């Protein structure tokens, strides 16, 4: 089969949400494709898709519909051919994809760590007893309750800009964001400190941009193969196998991190009760290719330790 590369007249359509972070990720994807294929910017169109989740800013996500809220409409655009690829924050993606779509291309992973963001304090350890921290993430909330019970956690939604405004307004003493997002947005003026994964194990696939396409689109597959980062793919595969076996929705407190050293993959995972009263952690090491098996096995071990009542 011959696969034709896009020409300026035959644009390759990159679908994305319209948030500043989503746009930065779409631009990174386009820049990497331009470099890999020596194509001009005009060969690509960045198609912004307004999704329902972005239009609801005043409620915690779990009160709306959580899973798929930010991705369903983008996937519909892929399926109907309005776009050729969709650029996602992998950590926001359900493990299962709609029939006909695949996500097997990942860009080199950014910093995986959560960031402590505060206008007043330097790190989590500096916060006085009773300090107020804002987060909407059940994972971060449970991890804080488990390891920093001296803090008061309040609900904090919105994109990076909204949360920073809330900090400036004194709604909370600190908040948490993915370091990757801050870096990709070039927010060098924001005072943040990355948090050790020992204190806050990141979300599955945090910092990894994933690219979804139609499974039968040979042109997109070939275009994307040139920008795939295999180590990121292996790490994400291990973490997502763990998540998939746990069958966690994005609202279940779960953290995991795979790291590669030589030909070995180290995987850490944890599940928490929502109040942080129970924390179950596990770790494993094995050949890189066995990452998904390791993630799967780790989930089964944690599930059997947790018992049937652990997840609400
Ligand atoms: N849930 C929103 C979201 N999805 C991806 C990122 C950051 C970038 C990434 O982890 O790839 C963020 C913001 C955050 O958690 O601070």
Automatic annotation (TrEMBL):
It is an enzyme of class 2 (transferase). Residues 13-220 form the Porphobilinogen deaminase N-terminal domain. The lineage of its organism: Bacteria, Pseudomonadati, Pseudomonadota, Alphaproteobacteria, Rhodobacterales. It comes from the Bacteria. The gene is hemC. Its cofactor is dipyrromethane. The modification S-(dipyrrolylmethanemethyl)cysteine is found at residue 250. Pathway: Porphyrin-containing compound metabolism; protoporphyrin-IX biosynthesis; coproporphyrinogen-III from 5-aminolevulinate: step 2/4. Tetrapolymerization of the monopyrrole PBG into the hydroxymethylbilane pre-uroporphyrinogen in several discrete steps. Its EC number is 2.5.1.61. The porphobilinogen subunits are added to the dipyrromethane group. Pfam families: Porphobil_deam (PF01379), Porphobil_deamC (PF03900). Residues 235-303 form the Porphobilinogen deaminase C-terminal domain. It comes from Yoonia tamlensis. Belongs to the HMBS family. GO terms for biological process: protoporphyrinogen IX biosynthetic process. One of its GO terms (cellular component) is cytoplasm. It catalyses: 4 porphobilinogen + H2O = hydroxymethylbilane + 4 NH4(+). GO terms for molecular function: hydroxymethylbilane synthase activity. Keywords: Porphyrin biosynthesis, Transferase. InterPro entries: HemC, Porphobilin_deaminase_cofac_BS, Porphobilin_deaminase_N, Porphobilinogen_deaminase_C, Porphobilinogen_deaminase_C_sf. This is Porphobilinogen deaminase. Binds 1 dipyrromethane group covalently. Monomer.
């Amino acid at each position: 089969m011959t696969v034709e590369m896009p020409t300026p007249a035959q644009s390759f359509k990159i679908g994305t949400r319209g948030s500043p972070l989503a746009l930065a990720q779409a631009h990174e994807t386009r820049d990497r494709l331009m470099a890999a294929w020596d194509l001009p910017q005009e060969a690509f169109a960045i198609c912004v898709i307004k999704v329902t989740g972005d239009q609801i800013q005043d409620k915690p996500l779990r009160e709306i519909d959580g899973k798929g809220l930010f991705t369903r409409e983008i996937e519909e655009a892929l399926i109907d051919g309005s776009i050729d690829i969709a650029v996602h924050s992998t950590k926001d993606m359900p493990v299962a994809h709609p029939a006909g779509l695949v996500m097997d291309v990942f860009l080199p992973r950014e910093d995986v760590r959560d960031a402590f963001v505060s206008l007043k304090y330097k790190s989590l350890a500096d916060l006085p007893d009773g300090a107020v921290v804002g987060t909407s993430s059940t994972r971060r909330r449970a991890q804080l309750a488990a390891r920093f019970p001296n803090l008061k956690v309040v609900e904090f939604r919105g994109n990076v800009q909204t949360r920073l405004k809330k900090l400036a307004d004194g709604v909370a003493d600190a908040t948490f964001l993915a370091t990757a997002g801050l870096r990709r947005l070039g927010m060098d003026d924001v005072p943040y400190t990355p948090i050790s994964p020992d204190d806050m194990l990141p979300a599955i696939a945090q910092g990894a941009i994933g690219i979804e396409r139609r499974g039968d689109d040979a042109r997109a597959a070939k275009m994307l193969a040139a920008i795939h980062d295999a180590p990121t793919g292996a790490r994400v595969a291990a973490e997502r196998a763990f998540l998939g076996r746990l069958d966690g929705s994005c609202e279940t407190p779960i953290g995991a991190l795979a790291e590669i050293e030589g030909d070995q993959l180290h995987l850490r995972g944890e599940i928490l009760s929502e109040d942080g009263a129970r924390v179950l952690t596990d770790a494993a090491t094995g050949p890189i290719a066995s990452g998904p098996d390791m993630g799967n096995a780790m989930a089964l071990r944690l599930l059997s330790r947790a018992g049937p009542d652990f997840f609400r």
